[in-house]
Design brief:
Oligomer: single chain
CATH superfamily of the largest domain: Thiamin diphosphate (ThDP)-binding fold, Pyr/PP domains
Radius of gyration: 24 Å
CATH class of the largest domain: Alpha Beta
Distance between the termini: 68 Å
């Protein structure tokens, strides 16, 4: 064994974990750790411009690579600035490690300068957290933390380290195994439950698969495809489940939920058996729980038993890793085809394509821009989004076809996620094109990370859908609050000049016929690019399930939503700027 100070133990531990990229921001209590970074050249430290940006970058890195993402911050405000990023990772089950420093052990609890009880603050938003009070405990803590973050249902883990623990000497002893009492994730499904599920599936006439983020996190996309093809079952995706099946697969019917397709929502509502895979049955995907196809039998496979019967009662809950359970289930089910059921879904789709089509005419729309970006990056590129209208249009039109291709904040819905998460994704995927579809509002929350892109030579392409509004808020105010527009119009800076200020390329696009050339110009540029697309201001995302409505109440027009809500329809709604 080798004796070393706590800072060296932390860095050696990260090397043992192969977590050698850190998105960090220095401060007083973590200076002992920064002092030792030059002695560990294997560790790549990326200096972000804000701790929240560092947290989202670690998140984007993890989502793009499937590996552990790491963020580092100092005490007090540095640590509290991570809270939004930690919660984002928690809601979407992203394997991340958040390291913070704290005041010296003699000052803990005494309201010292830049002290915050960050373990207390983060307790509800992490899978587990630690306050390490002895240098000799650091190595095992890091091994255990990484194990927790990356196994079972993944998620963020937080380690808080007082300043003097970084400088305290201890023997470095890396554990060969990690054993945690009470933590034993179940991977294989109970055979009796699997047989029960198979019998229900075989007896179904109208089965449907809900494929969630667990398919991506569990690397179970091949198993999903094999199972769906053998059993002949159509597949619907949650937002974060997009990429679990190729976009053009004959059994893939796209995204369900609040802004899912009309046919997907009605297929979900008319199925006689629902097979939920790696999803938490949330309201955004299922609408009003009480009316979520109450007569259907539900087979729910998830590695986290807490998700079973939380929102919907499962006929057959199966605890296990979808990558392990799907082959078990595939062995038990019969080879089937559901021709009449699939024909019915196809007929519904044929009658309702218009609401999810790209608007015609000369108006520059987000749908058109996103579709052209999808053409340019194909299946190999990575797309990162913020939250709002542009996020939903990206989900609808980017033709996501592989795992880790779409990176977006689902559960928390974090505006400002797009730019720093794209930074992290580009670090994880240096040989892939990374585009971020940005809202003009969300972009302004975190675009300081462009400076990090410049320093690190990361050629992220940032496509701002600039409509001068908080688009999704404006849509709700128009449709739900009867055109009562309040605090929704935004004056915007000159985004091209912002690009120039950072020394990168800026492109203004105001005409539809300029879009393809602008995208090509951005792709040809070896460095970050801001593209300011001046898109239609009053466009709405269709279809739509109003909050609190059921999937059967999916609407495709302003007239339908007014009828559903019992509201009059103004002749020519026009938001005030």
């Amino acid at each position: 064994m080798t004796k070393m100070i706590g800072a060296d133990i932390v860095l050696e531990s990260l090397k043992r974990l192969e977590a050698t990229t850190i998105f960090g921001y220095p401060g007083g209590v973590v200076l002992p750790l920064y002092d030792r970074l030059p002695a560990h050249p294997e560790i790549r430290h990326i200096l972000v411009r804000h701790e929240q940006g560092g947290g989202h970058a670690a998140d984007g890195y993890a989502r793009a690579s499937g590996k552990l993402g790491v963020a580092l911050a100092t005490s007090g405000p540095g640590a509290t600035n991570l809270v939004t990023a930690i919660t984002t990772a928690m809601m979407d089950s992203v394997p991340t490690l958040f390291i913070t420093g704290n005041v010296g052990r003699n000052l803990l609890g005494k309201d010292g300068f830049q002290e915050a009880d960050i373990t207390g603050i983060t307790m509800p938003i992490v899978k587990h957290n630690y306050l390490v009070m002895r240098a000799q405990d650091l190595a095992y803590t890091f091994a255990e933390a990484a194990h927790i973050a990356t196994t079972g249902r993944p998620g963020p883990v937080h380690i808080d380290i007082p300043k003097d623990v970084f400088t305290e000497e201890a023997e470095f002893e890396w554990p060969t195994t990690v054993s945690i009492r009470g933590y034993r994730p179940v991977l294989r499904g109970n055979p009796a439950q699997v047989k029960r599920a198979a019998a229900i599936i075989d007896a179904a006439e109208r089965p449907i698969i809900f494929a969630g983020h667990g398919i991506i996190l569990g690397r179970a996309h091949e198993e999903l495809r094999t199972f769906a093809e053998k059993a002949g079952i159509p597949v619907l995706n949650t937002l974060l489940g997009l990429g679990g099946m190729p976009h053009d697969h004959v059994l893939n019917y796209g995204m369900m939920g609040m802004h899912g397709s009309y046919w997907a929502n009605h297929a979900a509502s008319n199925a006689d058996v629902i097979i939920g895979l790696g999803m938490r049955m949330d309201d955004r995907a299922l609408g009003r729980f009480a009316d979520m196809n109450p007569t259907a039998k539900i087979v729910h496979i998830d590695i986290d038993p807490a998700e079973h019967n939380k929102n919907l009662i499962a006929t057959v809950p199966i605890v296990g890793d979808v990558r392990e359970v799907l082959p078990q289930l595939c062995d038990e089910v019969a080879q089937r085809s559901h021709v009449e059921w699939i024909r019915w879904i196809d007929q519904v789709r044929d009658g309702h394509r218009t609401s999810m089509s790209i608007p015609g005419g000369e108006t520059l729309t987000t749908q058109y821009v996103v579709d052209r970006i999808a053409d340019s990056i194909g299946t190999e590129g990575v797309v990162v989004t913020g939250v709002g209208q542009h996020q939903m249009w990206a989900a609808q039109f980017m033709r996501i076809s592989r795992p880790y291709q779409l990176i977006t904040s689902g559960g928390l819905g974090t505006m400002g996620f797009e730019v720093p998460a794209a930074l992290g994704a580009q670090v994880a995927c240096p040989d892939r094109a990374v585009w971020t579809i940005c809202g003009d509002g969300g972009f302004q929350m975190t675009f300081q990370e462009i400076a990090t892109m410049v320093d690190e030579r990361l050629p992220v392409k940032m496509a701002i859908m600039n409509n001068g509004y908080l688009g999704m808020v404006r849509q709700w105010q128009e449709l739900i609050y009867q055109d009562n527009y309040v605090a929704v119009a935004m004056s915007q800076p000159d985004f091209v000049k912002i690009a120039e200020a950072y020394g990168i390329k800026g492109i203004l696009v105001t005409d539809k016929d300029r879009v393809v050339d602008a995208i090509a110009e951005a792709n040809a540029y070896d460095g970050p690019v801001i593209l300011d697309f001046r898109v239609e201001a009053q466009g709405n995302v269709w279809p739509m399930v109003p909050a609190g409505a059921s999937l059967t109440e999916t609407v495709e027009s302003r007239e339908e939503i007014a009828q559903l809500l019992g509201q009059p329809i103004p002749a020519n709604p026009e938001p005030a700027r």
